[in-house]
Amino acid sequence: MRPCLRRSIFYMSTVMISGLLACNSHTRTGMDAEKESFSATDRDVIIDSDASEVGSDGVAWSEETGDRKVILEQEQDAWNEHVREPEYGRDMAEGKGEALDGTREMDPGSGGEREVPAESMDFPPDGREIDGHPENEASYDFRNSLAICWTDANCKRVMAVGHGGLWNVTSAPYDSNAALKAAYEAGMDGVKIDVRVTADNVPVISHSSPIEFYESIDCSGKRIEDMTAAEVTKCHRAPSLTETFQRLDDVLDYLRGKMVVQLCVKRSKDYGRTIEEIHAKGAEDFAFMEISTDELQNLIPTLQGSDSVYYLINVGSNLADVDKLLDSIKNPMAFMYEFDPTVDVSDMVRARLHPAGVRAFTYDDTKAALAAHFQKLYDGGYDVVSANVGNALIQARISVNQSRGLDPP
């Protein structure tokens, strides 16, 4: 089994319902009933022209759709099920822009550029140190450089990664520009995105191929590898009417100077092209690839430029791979190992990983997890945690880093 596709599907129902509602809102101009209720994983999705919130727990999302509002509970169970990904086989907008001299950046929502007020930029006061490093640049280095903390096993800082960005099922679809922007603005240290390569050899951001209808209504059933990049980037991410599939080079431009990015390349045959793109965009210091132990040993050495790209090695629960990685393969670019969240890594981190310069990573897909849940993972030895529950994860990271005397947390 390969990494990225190991994690099993559990998000489909809500995204499907959201997509159908979005489509329905543009095909039905009148409604016989002022209010209609649908069931979404045992919770209600209510359409109401006057309502502003829904749900007994008070959690809801509201989106204008023509002359009425679609009220959707922030229900992510279905997509979370999907992004756990079923097996280890990876075969399973254009909007160019980049940060320009610290005063303009790409707006992921529109694909254009926007002004960034100097006072809103993320940087600490002159002379302040971050993790022992003097910091005078216009960003927190540990968020946008693998050279600081990420690849330093002596660093006490724990990190948070948004799986697919900080997404929701109504306005910021999984893997979308809006989800990446939300992750950055919320304070995530990194994001995980999915990569496939088109028929004209362009890496794009896409989870599935063929594209599922809950991912894109207008491109459902189409295969990324049979489409051109121009065709792919015209596909809308359901249920949004503005968010489209992106090229990897555009996303790397946007993330530069903001966050590190974990690239889950769905087909191993596309590793070489992805490595080429990392080098072409000068992203070696903030982009890393998720691969398996066998791929690190047998495939990666055959690819040009692979010796200067960082790798997250997905060990899962096969702990024998740790000895193989540390004692036999010994690849210095394999800076972090991923374990299943049920694996107790505390002793291993202290005795094997950190002394060898390796950090511990896990992806936890627990539904509606609270900060205390993620804090246990950090306290149990994990240096980096990835999840779909963004705010709780960030809260846990802050709490742990504060307890360790780190500023900013």
Using brief descriptors, characterize the structure shown.
8-stranded parallel beta barrel, 12 helices, alpha/beta, 4-stranded antiparallel beta sheet, TIM Barrel, about 25% helix
Mean pLDDT: 77
Task: Give the count of structural domains.
Answer: 2
Proportion of strand residues: 15-25%
- Report the count of strand segments: 17
What's the CATH class of the largest domain, please? Alpha Beta
Rounded Rg: 21 Å
Determine the CATH topology of the largest domain.
TIM Barrel
The CATH superfamily label of the largest domain reads: Phosphatidylinositol (PI) phosphodiesterase
Helix share, percent: 25-40%
Strands in their spatial order, largest beta sheet: 9-10-12-13-14-15-16-17
What does this structure look like?
The model is unreliable at 7-14, 16-80 and 84-139 (pLDDT under 50). The strands form 4 sheets. Strands 9-10-12-13-14-15-16-17 form an 8-stranded parallel β-barrel, surrounded by 6 helices. Strands 1-2-4-3 form a 4-stranded antiparallel beta sheet, with helices on one face. Helix 8 links the parallel strand 13 and strand 14 (310-316). Helix 1 packs across helix 2 (77-83) and helix 11 packs across helix 12. It starts with 11 loop residues before the first helix and ends in a 6-residue tail after the last helix. The chain folds into 2 domains: 12-83, no CATH class; 106-403, Phosphatidylinositol (PI) phosphodiesterase (TIM Barrel), CATH 3.20.20.190. Helices cover 25% and strands 20% of the residues. It has 12 helices and 17 strands. The protein is α/β, with parallel strands linked by helices and 409 residues long. It has helices at residues 12-24, 77-83, 141-144, 177-186, 229-232, 248-255, 271-280, 293-299, 320-329, 346-353, 371-379, 390-403; strands spanning 35-40, 43-48, 61-65, 68-72, 104-106, 113-115, 129-130, 133-134, 159-163, 190-197, 203-205, 260-265, 287-291, 310-316, 334-339, 359-364, 384-387.
